[in-house]
Amino acid sequence: MVMLELLRMQAQRQAELLSNCVLALARDPLAPEQLNACAAAARSFEGTAQTVGLEAGAELARAMEECCAAVRRGEIELQRELIGMMVQAVDLLDCMARTSPTAPPLLRAIDGEDEDDFEEPYLESARHSKGKPVLVVDDSEETRELERKLLKYQGYEVVVAADGIEAWYAVLTGDFDLVLTDVEMPLLDGIELTRRIRRDPRFERLPVLIACDKGNLQQRWRCFDAGANYYVIKGTFHDTLVEAVATLIGPARK
């Protein structure tokens, strides 16, 4: 029983490593070392999954490994849609690895590699700042910059992400008091980003604020259904954004 639990823990660590590899691949799809890392991580998960009887997980990991090999051979092109499918596949593998409800939290150190190997320098400002760190996510540079300036002016420390994939990577490697995200974004939209945050016990209490389109009631209900704490309407940021953030996490200074 102890050995089985250790193998389950190993599967969880390998699923997290594979997630990091896919996220890194999304950030730099032309880097051959990222493809190799993804393939190696999928192969490791496949072996452990077979040992603990996760046949479906092993098959899915094998398919990811074959996909990476096909990209390396030039048989298929690594487009954004394919990366999005790989991200969803990693989510499934992670769920499969969490077969025990009492399993301990994910461990960061994998085969001697330190979690700092996956840190991003631009997140250091959020980690060590005096103001409360907020992650702003929007594929519109204009909107992103407006939100950043409004929050920074009030004393919040702001880190920005241009899409859901980049945002999820930031959540995994950063330390934020709140996530402010748009709804419609490429690869991983704000709804799925929120669901992913809520599924992970490490971030289940992380406040999520979503920027919705004016007059779109269905969009607001989808946000709440995904686990968002609150919403603001686009076009009213000057009047409502800072107030909403302060309501959820308090003033900028701790």
TrEMBL record:
A family per Pfam: Response_reg
PROSITE patterns membership: HPT, RESPONSE_REGULATORY, RHODANESE_3
Response regulatory domain: residues covered: 133-249
Residues where 4-aspartylphosphate is found: D182
Domain of life from the UniProt record: Bacteria
Listed InterPro entries: Bact_Chemotaxis_CheA (IPR051315), CheY-like_superfamily (IPR011006), HPT_dom_sf (IPR036641), Rhodanese-like_dom (IPR001763), Sig_transdc_His_kin_Hpt_dom (IPR008207), Sig_transdc_resp-reg_receiver (IPR001789)
Domain HPt: 1-100
Designated name of the protein: Response regulator
Source species of the chain: Steroidobacter gossypii
